[in-house]
Write a structure and sequence with these properties.
This protein has about 180 residues and is of the alpha+beta class. About 25% of the residues lie in helices and about 30% in strands. The chain has 6 helices and 7 strands. Strands 1, 2, 3, 4, 5, 6 and 7 form a 7-stranded antiparallel β-sheet that branches.
Length: about 180
């Protein structure tokens, strides 16, 4: 994965509401963007046994680079179809206070956070990302803008930032489910 990151790009502008980007997301995608529950749980319900979390990159080992922020990049799949790209930025102080963050492996972060006391989440920020704002691997595959949301999690006195990019697969799978239930 390239060093180009959706959450830090100088041209990136996050908004409090999706419509502030100048465009409206499709209703089915708006539901995903504003989901306050776990995206992994919702995707598991949508995909049943075909859910898969692929770890693209995780440099969250505090022993390797002490004093540096760490990142974890994953893609949530429905079968072979990529649905959500997620990137977590973990400040070095947070990694030091919560070493389990470097040991997640293919365990979803949200599911782990849900088991902890004293966890809170900020309001969402929204953006419509162009290829210039996406990590290179995604930019090469997706030339059309993609919706994203970002939020901060607070674990007691520590924090981390999660950026989630909604890939076309999430809408494709939702549309397929709707057709099957009609």
């Amino acid at each position: 994965m390239s060093a180009r990151e959706p959450h830090t790009g100088d041209t990136m502008l996050w908004h409090r509401e999706p419509e502030q980007t100048g465009l409206k997301p499709k209703p089915v995608l708006r539901g995903w963007l504003q989901e306050t529950g776990l995206l992994t749980a919702r995707l598991r319900r949508l995909c049943a046994s075909d859910f898969c979390l692929e770890v693209l990159d995780s440099n969250a080992n505090p022993d390797e680079q002490p004093g540096h922020d760490f990142q974890r990049r994953v893609i949530l799949h429905c079968g072979k179809q990529a649905c959500i790209y997620a990137e977590t930025v973990i400040p070095a102080a947070t990694a030091a206070m919560h070493p389990w963050l470097s040991e997640l492996g293919d365990e979803p972060l949200g599911e782990r956070l849900q088991t902890l006391p004293e966890v809170s989440r900020s309001e969402f920020r929204y953006a419509l990302l162009t290829a210039d704002n996406l990590p290179c691997d995604l930019a090469d595959l997706h030339q059309t803008p993609l919706w994203a949301r970002q939020s901060d999690f607070h674990i007691s006195d520590a924090s981390l930032t999660v950026t989630e990019v909604f890939l076309p697969g999430v809408v494709d799978n939702e549309d397929r489910r709707i057709k099957l239930t009609d």
